[in-house]
Amino acid sequence: xxRVKGKSGPLxxxxxxxxxxxxxxPAWSPMLTANTVLPFFYFMALICMLLGxxxxxxxxxxxxxxxxxxxxxxxxxxxxxxxxxxxxxESCSCTVVFSIERPFKGDVFFYYGLKNFHQNLRRYMDSxxxxxxxxxxxxxxxxxxxxxxxxxxxxxxxxxxxGAVANSIFNDSFTLTYHGSNQDPVRVPLLRxxxxxxxxxxxxxxxxxxxxxxxxxxxxxxxxxxxxxxxxYELDPIDPTNNGFINDxxxxxxxxxxxxxxxxxxxxxxxxxxxxxxxxxxxxxxxxISYNFPVQYFRxxxxxxxxxxxxxxxxxxxxxxxxxxxxxxxxxxxxxLTVVWCKFGxxxxxxxx
Length: 353
Hints:
Layout (H helix, E strand, L loop, with lengths): L33 H27 L3 E5 L6 H7 L11 E8 L3 E2 L2 E8 L6 H5 L3 H4 L3 H5 L22 H4 L5 E7 L6 E2 L2 E2 L6 H7 L10 H4 L29 H7 L7 E8 L9 E2 L2 E8 L10 E8 L9 H27 L9
Antiparallel strand pairs: 1-11, 2-10, 3-9, 4-8, 4-11, 5-6, 5-10, 7-8
């Protein structure tokens, strides 16, 4: 019987008399019994346990060292100096000495870290002009209103790059030195290029068209952000191709972190020459730091992180522990169900009074 046409009322809204609309299609209704459910629970507990142990062993195979240098050693004088805003333009350097007990084998990654810096604040994340960062000349001279109050300087000139994110870029720099037992100090070579995502470097961040002009001429008529020491076209004095909006350090900083405690990549060990062909050897090291970034105003801390990586990433124990906890809970439930089933029987006759 099909839909009744030309009539109003309940009959006009009645669905068709088909197997699909009247829910008469064949259906599979599994009968869940102890003989099928309990093996499944034990199997899932075993799978989660094996995955947890495997990931835990993988994570523990990495090596990591964190060094908080906020007010450590000679950095304490720089920490006190940065408390006064009037000293923001003055340079300050310090040195931190540390040692590595076991060699870091393989590729070693150098990160800088910040604590209690909320890059995930919505107004902070919105304070940028992606049209400007992608190289549009219109946005270069007319920044988006989202960048307010970091769109123009006191003379009305546009800021490039505009916004709070670019204005607060992390500007400490590091030089790592290895002090071998029987040799002179050796500077640890770090690769500072090619450390960004491919899509960031080639799609999301691009310089304006040059048109046979120099990069400084392209940015003519703009000014550097308020808290920067040099303009965007002079960020890397060593490599001219690493200037402007495609500077690796700028790109990495512009990818906001999701949590207030985070680390960002600064460089990767260059393993071309001895004694770093196998990684970082054990011994004494020092880090010469150009101390520029203030953390007192948000009660933050600064650190450097040396770590090796695996296919799973760095030292993150969350997923292995999550698998092991899940395995334990599933196993506990399975044991409880097994005890109940054995006590009352699969037919439930022992429950009768």
